[in-house]
Amino acid sequence: MSSDAGIRWRRLRGATGPLLQPELNPDELLNADRKRNADAP
Description:
mainly alpha
């Protein structure tokens, strides 16, 4: 896991704050992120 992903997660956390559902943990978001990156050309 890259530190870049952690930084992105913290930035996302700060930007959305309470709008993020508590049951969405960083790992789930990172997995979704990886899937999106894999789907991208």
